Amino acid sequence: MLIAEVADALMAHLGARGVQPRSFFYPLRRQPCFAHLGRGRGRSVCLDDAQFPGAIYGAEHGVLLPAFPELRADEVRYICDLIREFYGASHQS
Q1: Partner of 17 at 20 to 30 A CA spacing, among 9, 23, 49, 69?
Q2: Backbone angles phi, psi at 7, to 5 degrees
Q3: Rounded mean pLDDT of 40-68?
Q4: Is residue 52 exposed (0-12), middle (13-18) or buried (19+ Cβ within 10 Å)?
Q5: What per-residue confidence (pLDDT) applies to 67?
Q6: Confidence band, pLDDT 50/70/90 cuts, at residue 70
Q7: Which CATH number fits domain 2-88: 3.30.365.10, 3.30.420.10, 3.40.50.720, 3.90.1150.10?
Q8: What is the dihedral of CA 7, 11, 12, 18, to 10 degrees?
Q9: What is the mean pLDDT of residues 63-67?
Q10: SS (H, E, C) the chain
Q11: In the predicted model, is pLDDT for residue 93 greater than 50?
Q12: How far apart are the C-alpha atoms of 66 and 75, rounded to whole Å?
């Protein structure tokens, strides 16, 4: 995963050049399988976003880059070059 201040713009830049990034999944505590932790049977686990600023930031700014066993070294270099190209342009925040 890559953390980017302008994740949407970076993903658009990569996508336009044939790389398929994905946005990061929402924080684990927001997933339905954990919903029961905040209610019922005396449970009072605080699942407020303010308690997990790092997880929220990661979900909003995370970019999942391609990663699979068949990914070749030249493809990794290409992706890295595209990221350098993006940050060398005027997209920095």
Answers
A1: 69
A2: -60, -45
A3: 82
A4: middle
A5: 94
A6: very high
A7: 3.90.1150.10
A8: 170
A9: 95
A10: CEECCCHHHHHHHHHHCCCCCEECCCCHHHCHHHHHHHCCCCCCCCCCHHHCHHHHHHHHHEEECCCCCCCCHHHHHHHHHHHHHHHHCCCCC
A11: no
A12: 10
The amino acid that residue 29 corresponds to is: R
**Between residues 37 and 4, the one the model is more confident about:** 4
Instruction: Spell out the domain ranges in the chain.
Output: 2-88
Q: Give the tokens for residue 78.
A: 């290409």
**Half-sphere exposure (CA, 13 Å, Cβ side) for 67?**
6
- Residues written for the chain: 93
Q: Summarize pLDDT for 21-43 with one digit per residue, the tens.
A: 998 877 877 888 877 776 555 65
